[in-house]
Design brief:
- The chain is about 45% helix and about 25% strand.
- It starts with a strand and ends with a strand.
- A hairpin with a 2-residue loop joins strand 1 and strand 2.
- The protein contains nine helices and nine strands.
- The chain is α/β, with parallel strands linked by helices.
- The chain has helices at about 15-25, 30-40, 40-55, 70-75, 90-105, 140-150, 170-190, 195-205, 210-220, and strands at about 5, 10, 60-65, 80-85, 110, 125-130, 150-160, 220-230, 235-240.
- It is globular.
- The relative contact order is 0.15.
């Protein structure tokens, strides 16, 4: 069986799945705080822009994959969409359920799901969203295939993920910051440098925008687009099931 990347390591697929579970179990309680610290709060703006591109509508069904803490789902639900929050990690879902309760947000469906083998019927959703989660999937092609399967005809796919910036100077600055500062922040705030070192390494191993767009097209989506943010440090990929 071919090996897959876990950060800068190449491991057996089942080993990556196990380790990724461990990473997010470790960081679940402080995941959103760490996102604020690592991005200077900019992840909130990126998610707002992302949901703006999705254009959720009242009554439509949206699957928010790898959305355990609810950050994207809460934004989608404001428009009146019926949102199912799915995540492979029960600790992340627990954090999201607690956050929804404290905020008085009702009506979300929470489901423990593997993105590579969803339990939902085909053509169940109008839209599929995944934010900062696709790079942690063991077999990205299988997850994209499942996204295509569970979408209705005319359904839309949206992915928010880190990529590689093309801005001169900024790329080098960000690389130094991410490799040196982020694990230190993780150690101080979350008591876990290794998990955050993996998160940075997983970004570095993720396909660039054209390569990922090609994977989305191969899964059957049409009108695939890649929208860079900060020169490509973050990108919104989208496609339609026709």
């Amino acid at each position: 069986m071919d090996k897959v990347s876990f950060g800068h390591e190449d491991v057996e697929p089942q080993e990556k799945t196990r380790r990724v579970r461990g990473v997010f179990s470790n960081v679940a309680g402080r995941y959103d705080m760490m996102n604020d610290l690592m991005s200077g709060g900019m992840h909130r703006l990126w998610k707002n822009q992302f949901v703006g591109r999705v254009r959720p509508r009242r009554g439509e069904r949206i699957l928010d994959m790898a959305g355990g803490t609810g950050d994207v789902a809460f934004r989608l639900a404001r428009a009146g969409a019926a949102v199912t929050v799915a995540d492979i990690n029960p600790e992340m879902l627990s954090v999201g359920i607690d956050r929804a309760r404290r905020r008085g947000i009702d009506g979300l469906v929470w489901a423990e799901e593997n993105a590579e083998a969803l339990s939902f019927e085909k053509r169940s959703f109008n839209a599929y969203t995944i934010a900062f989660g696709i790079r942690n999937v063991t077999h990205i092609d299988r997850a994209l295939g499942e996204a295509h399967r569970v979408l209705k005809h005319g359904g839309r796919f949206y992915c928010l993920e880190f990529s590689q910036t093309s801005w001169p100077g900024f790329a080098e600055l960000y690389e130094r910051y991410s490799r040196q500062a982020v694990p230190r922040i993780g150690r101080v705030v979350a008591g876990d440098a290794d998990s955050y070192r993996y998160l940075i390494e997983s970004i570095e191993r993720f396909p660039d925008m054209p390569a990922f767009a090609a994977m989305i097209e191969k899964a059957g989506f049409r009108q695939v687009k890649a929208e860079p943010i900060l020169g490509g440090l973050v990108a919104i990929h989208s496609g339609w099931k026709t």
